[in-house]
Amino acid sequence: MAVSWKRKDLLGLEELSKEEIELILETADSFREISLRPIKKVPTLRGKTVVLFFFEPSTRTRTSFELAAKRMSADLVNIQTNASSLLKGETLKDTAKNIEAMKVDIIVMRHSSSGAPHLLAKAVSPSIINAGDGSHEHPTQGLLDLFTIKEHKKRISGLNVSTIGDIMHSRVARSNIWGLTKLGANITVCGPATLIPPEIERLGVKITYDVKEAIEGADVINLLRIQLERQSQNLFPSLREYAMKFGLDSDKMKYAKKDVLIMHPGPINRGVEITPEVADGPYSVILEQVTNGIAVRMAVLYLVSGVKERKG
Fold this sequence. Notes:
Blueprint lengths: L17 H14 L17 E6 L5 H12 L3 E6 L11 H10 L4 E6 L4 H8 L3 E7 L5 H15 L6 E5 L6 H12 L3 E5 L15 E3 L2 H5 L4 E4 L15 H8 L14 E3 L12 H4 L6 H20 L7
Parallel strand pairs: 1-2, 1-3, 3-4, 5-6, 5-8, 6-7, 8-9
């Protein structure tokens, strides 16, 4: 591929070109087989130090980045923000500057405030990878979703992708929309009117409030987690009503294409956005998304690290 990676950071898919996204996916494909080896280790990032700096709870993303770094022989540091100097009044920027002073190479950051990784990227010299910022973006989740779709469908251009759920508060939805549209997919978003920002059509997506319409003709159905904390805001009447109207179950699957892919970024609220028989059924690639996340994050770590030599 003619394009080369020239960015210090990975902050979002909005700023990436189609060619840069394709480069990440191609690089991830070359790293995937490492996780299938008896000894899952290569020296690609030996001598590099990766810091995981998570301000929000995470299982899949943190573990995936940790495994990705370890499988490429990087030195890894986990910073627990509930035991850091931030609790003593130190600013985020000052904490990051102190981490920088320890001569680390990459900081993987998750933060509840949209734009926090962008702030650090301007303030410090280590590469910053956005592992999710507020309701803005979750670029590596978007990338692993693209990777999984392409793995099964062999293409993304021309596919019909329906995203169902809480679009309003979802950083995953935004990263998926940016990535999918740049690679030529047709996107429909569906959910309660209170959970869909009206301006989202400006991003080139179609809105429907009819889940049957969203399911029919879709090559991929991406279900988003209903954030239970939103229920206190009365954005929809009840979880039971949401599940009846928008949750994917066996009855609604009758409207789906025979080769549809069912995706979910996790964690799943079983019985709310998806029933167990669908989540664990033959159309589901949810666990494959988790597996592919390691290869994608290996690719991102590799590219932002500036390592030029071929992996071993």
